[in-house]
Design goal:
The chain is an alpha+beta fold. The chain folds into two domains: about 150 residues, NADH Oxidase (3-Layer(aba) Sandwich); about 170 residues, no CATH class. A four-stranded antiparallel β-sheet has the order 1-2-7-4, sandwiched between helices. Strands 3-8 form a two-stranded parallel ribbon. Helix 14 packs parallel to helix 16, helix 16 packs parallel to helix 18 and helix 17 packs antiparallel against helix 18. The N and C termini lie far apart (about 75 Å). Bound molecules: cobalamin (B12) and iron/sulfur cluster (2 copies). The site of one iron/sulfur cluster has 12 residues, from helix 9 and helix 11. One iron/sulfur cluster binds next to helix 9 and helix 11.
């Protein structure tokens, strides 16, 4: 049964397949509780709501006897760090510059699950990302790789460019052994993080992570992070891209997650003009659609403010009367960074007086003070 599942998984284009047991990580509950108690999950309340099920596969589904962990590579063709120098363009995390992996991976897992249940007359449940399943520690227990100091799973053969999925099954499958930790004394991922999001090795405070701030966080992004975000408009790959284990990664050959050239480094000017319909069309079928247009524009305007390109001030200006206060607020911030004091004062008189949103009014005051101080 085990061999048949492996063969089928490879046939379906899954790069890694290993098996573990539901109770393989006894420290899971304690570690998850400590992480949540420290508030490191930020506004991701869904992580608290189903913490019991997350910490224990058997609580999520009492019928589970074995956990099949699957990995699919998405190694990018160019180093994502090179995007950060293109200041008037947006940097989108490598996993999001292509078809949404949730759909692709889930389709493959469903096929594999169907095969397993038919072959062994067993029950199965498939999960990719959004279910209360601790995919990284389970994948580590199954020996797919180990959780690096950046907390992401690294495989010796594929580096850390891996997306994960799980099949819980009632079948008793032979379990694999965990992989050893091969981080050694390296700490490159910890040192490169722009926002100091790692309170300690193997621990991430999501509230400081650019991936969380640009994708999960709903409101305005706190001023302390805006400069540090640079041109990252959806997710962040810095700690992954610097990992030396990626030198073994083979560029994902199959077109299963089809990288889209138009998402490799899109011009910020173009993105700032997207209305809701154009945003949906442009990002249909990709993970980027998740944020919705307003949050995405918030990120784009922060990148515009960080671009140092005064020709982009006009794009920010045209967002000053946007229907979304989130967008208006970041347009004000971007203009404060790009326009000179006289222009900001003029715009203040035209727009700030009639502004109804308290957050946007605060952005106007901050922008006026900022240009005042810079001019002085
Ligand atoms: C919530 C979440 C996020 C949050 C929080 C990330 C995090 N590190 O927890 C945010 C939004 C920040 C995020 C960002 C990203 N994510 Co995410 N995310 C998730 C999600 C939904 C849950 C993760 C989770 O349970 N976190 C809770 C914490 C407590 O778990 P943990 O990180 O495993 O924490 C362990 C360690 O702290 C450990 N620990 C504590 N002390 C010690 C000491 C030692 C010695 C050791 C060994 C361990 C250890 O114990 C904890 C429990 O095991 C998973 C999907 C899933 N269902 O699992 C995807 C997932 C982890 N994300 C993924 C990806 C791709 C990303 C990004 C790369 C996307 C991007 N480019 O922007 C970044 C990476 C940022 C980073 N460095 O982690 C992939 C990772 C694949 C892989 N190879 O591991 C996953 C698995 C999705 C998937 N199905 O493929 N993500
Ligand atoms: S994804 Fe970026 S911000 Fe988040 S921990 Fe890694 S380097 Fe830091
Ligand atoms: S960069 Fe170094 S410390 Fe970080 S995960 Fe990779 S090997 Fe481990």
């Amino acid at each position: 049964m085990r061999q048949a599942v492996e063969a089928r998984a490879r046939h379906l284009g899954l790069d890694l397949v290993r098996v573990t047991t539901p109770d393989a990580v006894p420290a899971l509950r304690e570690r998850l509780s400590a992480w949540l108690a420290a508030g490191h999950h930020g506004e991701m309340a869904w992580m608290v709501d189903r913490a019991d099920q997350r910490a224990d596969p058997a609580t999520l589904w009492p019928g589970v006897r074995s956990v099949v962990m699957l990995g699919m590579t998405y190694s990018p063709e160019t180093n994502p760090l090179s995007l950060l120098a293109l200041k008037n363009r947006g940097a989108i995390a490598a996993y999001a510059q292509r078809r949404d992996y949730h759909e692709v991976l889930k389709g493959k897992l469903k096929e594999l699950g169907g095969y397993l249940s038919a072959k062994g007359d067993v029950r199965v449940k498939v999960f990719v990302d959004t279910a209360p399943v601790m995919e990284k520690p389970l994948a580590a227990a199954a020996g797919l790789g180990w959780q690096g100091k950046h907390t992401v799973l690294i495989s010796r053969e594929h580096g850390n460019w891996l997306l994960l999925g799980a099949i819980y099954t009632s079948a008793d499958l032979v379990a694999d052994k965990p992989e050893d930790d091969h981080c050694g004394s390296c700490r490159r991922c910890l040192d490169i993080c722009p926002t100091a999001a790692f309170p300690a090795p193997y621990q991430l405070d999501a509230r400081r992570c650019i991936s969380y701030l640009t994708i999960e966080h709903e409101g305005p992004i706190a001023p302390e992070f805006r400069d540090l975000i640079g041109n990252r408009i959806f997710g962040c790959d810095d700690c992954l891209a610097i990992c030396p284990w990626n030198k073994f990664a083979v560029i994902a050959a199959e077109g299963r997650l089809g990288a889209r050239a138009d998402l490799a480094a899109p011009p910020l000017a173009e993105l700032a003009r997207l209305d809701d319909a154009a945003f949906r069309t442009r990002f249909a079928g990709t993970p980027v659609k998740r944020t919705g247009r307003d949050r995405f524009l918030r990120n784009v305007l922060i990148a515009i403010g960080n671009s140092g390109d005064v020709s982009l001030a006009v794009e920010a200006e045209s967002c000053l009367s946007d229907a979304s206060p989130l967008v208006r607020g970041m347009a004000v911030w971007a203009l404060g960074r790009l326009a000179d004091a006289a222009v900001v004062h003029d715009l203040f008189n035209r727009y700030a007086i009639g502004e109804t949103d308290a957050d946007v009014r605060a952005e106007w005051r901050a922008a006026r003070d900022y240009v005042g101080n810079t001019a002085a």
